[in-house]
Amino acid sequence: MSARPRLVYERWTDPAAGDILEVSDVDIVKLDLTAPAEQGWAALESAHGYQVATRTDVASADDGAQWLAGPALVERCQQLLVVCSAGAGYDVIDVEACTRAGIAVCNNSGPGAEAVAEHALGFMLDLAKKITVADRALRSGPIGNRLALQGSQLLGKTLGVIGLGAIGSRLVELCAPFGMEVIVFDPYVDEASASDHEVQLVSLDQLVERSDFVQVTCPLTKETQGLIGKAQFAAMKPTTFFITTARGPVHDEKALYDALVSGGIAGAGLDVFHEEPPRQDNPLLQLDNVVATPHTAGITIEAARDIAVATATQWQTIFSGGMPPRLLNPDVWPRYCERFHGIFGFRPSATVVLERRG
């Protein structure tokens, strides 16, 4: 190599990532969000890889958004070859700006899918059985009429999944014992794949009209931002529960609030918000028919370790000259290879990752 790989990261989901990379021929530099900005830029301007900080990570930092992989960071960091998000979501990365600059973009979809899917199922059970509602009532004073806490069952209901990726697919599997009808809106899934998952592909309009549970498990992109708004909530049944473990901007928070207070829908399970962490005076948090968590769906002991291991091994593959296993912008590959060769003196090969997968 004509240069030693340098990787900048804000944090690992588990120390296992650092343990794995310590024995690799890579310089590892931690981005300290509390340090002067000049220190952070000095590290990033010499970096070949960047494990991007999340929006939650940078929320408390002064001008924290500068550490997200947007056009300004891409333009400033001329040596940058690869940026990677910590989990499946990659809204912290401007994929188009990276592609134009010859930078590969990766995520870590897959390792955290079980945790998020289980969390989504937990929301379904909580809302249907009124577990949190009953808990609040029990703690606030004597229970008068238990029938006021009457819930419903999942058995035989219709589940609508928006986004049949790793999380959505696993959620479908988890719901199989409840004998639910599963319908899916995902323009990137074909009929053959839908048949393999034993689900029915429908339009978004059909999904919101028919579902008893609307589950949002898609990534935040230009296509999905604002996907669920006033018209979609108005089309839902008054008995429908809206649940999201995706990203806040996929739905309109004001429209959701209006649907919840008007009785347009029965309730909501929210792991994500437009502003994270949400302020305590967020109107949605004042509603009894809302169950909320602070973007913790994917935070389990097991998922944290699995994501860390997947993160570290992907970086090992990248710097050894392989194609990243979870490459999001494959069109960048030819230009990326040229830039990689110019920095490290050898050309990456897509066959390296195939050999590792085998």
UniProtKB/TrEMBL annotation:
Gene3D superfamilies: NAD(P)-binding Rossmann-like Domain. GO terms for molecular function: NAD binding; oxidoreductase activity, acting on the CH-OH group of donors, NAD or NADP as acceptor. The keyword Kinase does not apply. Residues 121-297 form the D-isomer specific 2-hydroxyacid dehydrogenase NAD-binding domain. One of its GO terms (biological process) is amino acid biosynthetic process. SUPFAM superfamilies: Formate/glycerate dehydrogenase catalytic domain-like, NAD(P)-binding Rossmann-fold domains. Keywords: Amino-acid biosynthesis, NAD, Oxidoreductase. Residues 73-329 form the D-isomer specific 2-hydroxyacid dehydrogenase catalytic domain. It comes from the Bacteria. Pfam families: 2-Hacid_dh, 2-Hacid_dh_C. PANTHER family: D-ISOMER SPECIFIC 2-HYDROXYACID DEHYDROGENASE FAMILY PROTEIN (AFU_ORTHOLOGUE AFUA_6G10090) (PTHR42789). Belongs to the D-isomer specific 2-hydroxyacid dehydrogenase family. This is Phosphoglycerate dehydrogenase-like oxidoreductase. It comes from Mycolicibacterium rhodesiae (strain NBB3) (Mycobacterium rhodesiae).
